From TrEMBL, chain A:
<dbReference type="GO" id="GO:0006552">
    <property type="term" value="P:L-leucine catabolic process"/>
</dbReference>
<feature type="domain" description="Pyruvate carboxyltransferase">
    <location>
        <begin position="48"/>
        <end position="283"/>
    </location>
</feature>
<keyword id="KW-0456">Lyase</keyword>
<dbReference type="GO" id="GO:0005829">
    <property type="term" value="C:cytosol"/>
</dbReference>
<dbReference type="InterPro" id="IPR013785">
    <property type="entry name" value="Aldolase_TIM"/>
</dbReference>
<dbReference type="GO" id="GO:0005783">
    <property type="term" value="C:endoplasmic reticulum"/>
</dbReference>
<dbReference type="GO" id="GO:0004419">
    <property type="term" value="F:hydroxymethylglutaryl-CoA lyase activity"/>
</dbReference>
<dbReference type="GO" id="GO:0046951">
    <property type="term" value="P:ketone body biosynthetic process"/>
</dbReference>
<dbReference type="GO" id="GO:0046872">
    <property type="term" value="F:metal ion binding"/>
</dbReference>
From TrEMBL, chain B:
<comment type="function">
    <text>Mitochondrial 3-hydroxy-3-methylglutaryl-CoA lyase that catalyzes a cation-dependent cleavage of (S)-3-hydroxy-3-methylglutaryl-CoA into acetyl-CoA and acetoacetate, a key step in ketogenesis. Terminal step in leucine catabolism. Ketone bodies (beta-hydroxybutyrate, acetoacetate and acetone) are essential as an alternative source of energy to glucose, as lipid precursors and as regulators of metabolism.</text>
</comment>
<dbReference type="InterPro" id="IPR043594">
    <property type="entry name" value="HMGL"/>
</dbReference>
<dbReference type="GO" id="GO:0046872">
    <property type="term" value="F:metal ion binding"/>
</dbReference>
<feature type="domain" description="Pyruvate carboxyltransferase">
    <location>
        <begin position="33"/>
        <end position="300"/>
    </location>
</feature>
<dbReference type="GO" id="GO:0005777">
    <property type="term" value="C:peroxisome"/>
</dbReference>
<keyword id="KW-0456">Lyase</keyword>
<keyword id="KW-0576">Peroxisome</keyword>
<comment type="subunit">
    <text>Homodimer; disulfide-linked. Can also form homotetramers.</text>
</comment>
<keyword id="KW-0496">Mitochondrion</keyword>
Length: 308, 325
């Protein structure tokens, strides 16, 4: 394979290929055209819900603090993409009531499958945190506010190392049992690989139906999409991601964090799965926020497309 | 050598038949994966900065120390086209040849083959493509003509007892033709295999593929060529390489090409990344309990070394996460 002339970059077919693969110009609904022969992997869910955590998990872990008006514009742009869930909430504390008063329509609680992580992160044991969450969830449900549960360190802990699947199941079951409508299983430090993802999900799915589960994979070791593919193959159809892969990893300086929404959508589109999200609009929102926080995108799709 | 099967009819029977081809269940992976390290050739060839001969030699020696079983050392394509590989003979002569490690070199034609043998090559690679336009633009001839060139090399190689590995480019998409049919990939692969290539590496040259198209392409190819003779060469231009590789492993492929530090950009998308990073691949395989024989720590050191020499940041996420530079 020798070098090729730079004229290739501008050849029409390549632009056309990009359009085909990036679904540029498609309707926001993203409905598949039955006339198109998009190969569909059997055994995968038909529809995947993407939970966009960029404005929360992403920006929270960026060095630069983003002014409010930029944040609002960013979220507005994301709202135009077809994303059905955009997380803008921050950590829940016992003082969650003001957040509800401020108009929050959904609340998240953050548990962990690791005692050490729980102590270091929220200053209490797993058991103590569960008791606090019970109160929160009970009150929230009284007010008809849905609660999403997160379980951190589902595939490994920066302090404890390996986390056994049974522990993840135990914590997830608690959160689900107290009334969380969905449990997002987070590979907080991105150490998971398809094998550990599969073993963990097999354990959790014995107690919780897959429709109530989501995966939140970090790309710190480049494993996120492979892990997500594994989760999809196991029947999971809710995936968290962050536009432009915003948010570094606080446990590995200089390392990346969240999986990029653009790269996730690219894979899901290629798999013929419906997401309802317009990839090109997501890329525009990503371009906007990266310029605003003065950083290069972590999305490979964005890197390849904006320079093509 | 495997028995030849009847050719698939030209027209695809239908996607349903492809999906029906046996697919490994989720948990079935090969116990061992052979990693073919292409950083010193495919990687360096596509880097802007050219490194010295001694740097190349040191890199390859470090990769050998890391335990990679196959390290593509250089290319005997004319320096007019690939100036980065102009020192091919010196590199091949200068590297330490570890026992048990193969050091194939790329040879585009019989002249390159002869130069490679004269420089001490014990294995060569030839390349083809599943796209007529790509072949035309890249090597200035048709697929048929390019296969004839490869055949010439294969005959000479057989006479000299030199094993030959084949590459097929554009297996999941072409920068000129767009979509590439799995049947075309199967046709070219089958030809190269029957001409005598012991292994064919299927390359997603522009990294546009996703796991579904990878599966469909492999299903078609596996109708014609035994999976043990197949390898995948995924580019990470759209971040899909590891997921595509995972799918290939689930289909039974047990040979994967990758490049230390993810060296080598993509000539078709300026600023985009190219090869899958070997470190990230090893990380996944290790997590899956698959034996590779590679020492990740030593591999990381090789990656750090070459990135410093090239004055660039690594494209490997594992390296970014573990190196405190």
């Amino acid at each position: 394979m020798g070098n090729v002339p730079s004229a290739v970059k501008h050849c029409l077919s390549y632009q056309q290929l990009l359009r085909e693969h990036l679904w540029i110009g498609d309707s926001v609904a993203g409905a598949l055209d039955p006339a198109q022969e998009t190969p569909q992997l059997s055994g995968l869910p038909e529809y995947v819900k993407i939970v966009e955590v960029g404005p929360r998990d992403g920006l929270q872990n960026e060095k630069v603090i983003v002014p409010t008006d930029i944040k609002i514009e960013f979220i507005n742009q994301l709202s135009q993409t077809g994303l059905s869930v955009i997380e803008v909430t921050s950590f829940v504390s016992s003082r969650w009531v003001p957040q509800v008063a401020a108009g929050a329509t959904e609340i998240s609680v953050f548990g962990a499958a690791s005692e050490s992580f729980s102590k270091k992160n929220i200053n209490c044991s797993i058991e103590e945190s569960m008791q606090k969450f019970e109160e929160v969830v009970k009150s929230a449900r009284h007010m008809n506010i849905p609660v999403r549960g997160y379980v951190s360190c589902a595939l490994g802990c920066p302090y404890e190392g390996t986390i056994i699947p049974q522990k993840v199941t135990e914590v997830s079951k608690r959160l689900y049992g107290m009334g969380c409508y969905e449990i997002s299983l987070g590979d907080t430090i991105g150490v998971g690989t398809p094998g550990s993802m599969k073993r963990m999900l097999e354990s959790v799915m014995k107690e919780i139906p897959p429709s109530a589960l989501a995966v939140h994979c970090h790309d710190t070791y480049g494993q996120a999409l492979a892990n997500i593919l594994t989760a999809l193959q196991m029947g999971i159809n809710v995936v968290d991601s962050a536009v432009s892969g915003l948010g570094g990893c606080p446990y590995a300086k200089g390392a990346s964090g969240n999986v990029a929404t653009e790269d996730l959508i690219y894979m899901l589109n290629g798999l013929g799965l419906n997401t309802g999200v317009n990839l090109y609009k997501v890329m525009e929102a990503g371009d906007f926020i990266c310029k605003a926080v003065n950083k290069t995108t972590n999305s490979k799709v964005a890197q390849a497309s904006f320079n093509a | 050598m495997a028995t030849m099967r009847n050719a698939l009819p030209r027209r695809l029977v239908g996607l349903a038949s492809l999906r029906a081809v046996s697919t490994s269940s989720l948990g079935t992976f090969p116990k061992r994966v052979k990693i073919v390290e292409v950083g010193a050739r495919d990687g360096l060839q596509n880097e802007k900065n050219i490194v010295s001969t001694s740097t190349k030699i040191k890199l390859i020696d470090m990769l050998s120390e890391a335990g990679l079983p196959v390290i593509e050392a250089t290319s005997f394509v004319s320096p007019k086209w690939v100036p980065q590989m102009a020192d091919n003979a010196e590199v091949l002569k200068g590297i330490q040849k570890f026992p048990g490690i193969n050091y194939p070199v790329l040879t585009p034609n019989i002249k390159g083959f002869q130069a490679a043998i004269a420089a001490g090559a014990k294995e060569v690679t030839v390349f083809g493509a599943a796209s007529e336009l790509f072949t035309k633009k890249n090597t200035n001839c048709s697929i048929e003509e390019s296969l004839q060139r490869s055949d010439e090399i294969l005959k000479a190689a057989r006479a000299a007892d030199i094993p030959v590995r084949g590459y097929v480019s554009c297996v999941l998409g072409c920068p000129y033709e767009g979509k590439i049919s799995p049947a075309k990939v199967a046709e070219v692969t089958k030809k190269m295999y029957s001409m005598g290539c012991y292994e064919i590496s299927l390359g997603d040259t522009i990294g546009v593929g996703t796991p579904g198209v990878m599966k469909d392409m492999l299903s078609a190819v596996m109708h014609e060529v035994p999976v043990a003779a197949l390898a995948v060469h995924c580019h990470d231009t759209y971040g899909q390489a590891l997921a595509n590789t995972l799918m290939a492993l689930q289909m039974g492929v047990s040979v994967v090409d990758s490049s230390v530090a993810g060296l080598g950009g993509c000539p078709y998308a300026q600023g985009a990344s190219g090869n899958l990073a070997t470190e990230d691949l090893v990380y996944m395989l290790s997590g899956l309990g698959i034996h590779t024989g590679v020492n990740l720590q030593k591999l990381l050191e090789a990656g750090t070394f070459i990135c410093q020499a090239l004055n660039r940041k690594t494209s490997s996420k594992v390296a970014q996460a573990t190196c405190k530079l």
